[in-house]
Amino acid sequence: MIEYTLQGGDEGANRLDILSNTLQLSTENFLKTLGIHEGANCLDLGCGTGSVTCIIAKIIGNRGNVLGLDINEKNIQLAVESAKAKAIKNVNFKYFDAYLLREKFVYDVIYSRFLLSHLTNPKKVLQNTLDALKPGGLILIEDTDFAGHFSNPKSDDFNHYINLYERLLRTRRADANIGQKLVWLLNEVGFTEVKFQISQPVHISGKGKLMAEITFKAVSESLVEEGFITESEAIRIYSSLVQFRKRGDTMMSLPRIFQVSAKKAF
Asked: pTM score, two decimals?
């Protein structure tokens, strides 16, 4: 499986770090309110550079263990280095394809953020997670409703970026707005007690305000390859997003983020 549309490498890792810092408080609150118990055996599926994996590791304590899996080898390398620098020992990382998860009745908790929206068959991966959970186990998902972006004042190029991103994922048979569908997907697969809430970071300053331009840059090559825009149009849109961000009178949101929890029946 190489379905992830966003650019990887060092720039991709930098984007993930900014995103993780922006979402840290919201994600941490989401995890803590679900009552993950000390000593739990956990899986972070599509762990990126390991920021949430390390949060989970702290919640479950030294008697617990969390494994982070990701399809990007650079991310795994950075995740290992980050956990080592933080002296977090109850965490491991591995290069892995989510479609190949075959374990049965292993995990107390499985967490995933911004993975399913990039997959052509997210239902298959959800079935894998259901099989891998112990009876009574918990799945926690954060994923996007990309159409929920907004800015104030309105910006044509900001809206154009959102539409281009949605179109790109749709062309690649993925779904940038999968957040709206997660409740039904989890029910279809066989999860129970499905619940959700919505989080949406909004910025008038700071690094979080960078997300539009760096996300656009991460997909601009793909947009050009698909013929949606020309290289010169990509440069112009990127420059416009930068200038819009620099203005002192602008407010820019991230996508609406659906935070969904569900259980595997006993």
From this structure: 0.94
* Those residues with Cβ within 8 angstroms of residue 14's Cβ, 6 or more apart along the chain or in another chain: 214
Is residue 65 in some structural domain?
yes
DSSP assignment letter at 223: H
User: 70: alpha, beta or left, given left = phi > 0 and alpha = psi -120 to 50?
Assistant: beta
Residue 246 belongs to some domain of the structure: no
Range of the domain at 69: 9-147+173-201+254-263
Decide: helix, strand or coil at residue 231: helix
> Per residue in 59-100, pLDDT tens?
999 999 999 999 999 999 999 999 999 999 999 999 999 999
Residue 69 lies in a domain: yes
**What contacts 204, CB < 8 A, 6 or more positions away?**
250, 251, 252
Decide if 68 is inside a domain: yes
Q: What is the 3-state secondary structure of 113-179?
A: ECCHHHCCCHHHHHHHHHHHEEEEEEEEEEEEEHHHCCEECCCHHHHHHHHHHHHHHHHCCCCCCHH
End-to-end CA distance of the chain: 31
Q: Are 118 and 5 in contact (CB under 8 A)?
A: yes
Which structure tokens are listed for 66?
Answer: 């969390």
What gap in Å lies between CA 120 and CA 124, rounded to an integer? 9
Nearest CA to 98 out of 65, 144, 131, 74 is that of: 131
The vertex-87 CA angle with 84 and 88, nearest 5°, equals 90
Tally of domains in the chain: 1
Residue-wise pLDDT tens digits, 140-184: 999 999 999 999 999 999 999 999 999 999 999 999 999 999 999
Q: CATH no. for residue 61?
A: 3.40.50.150
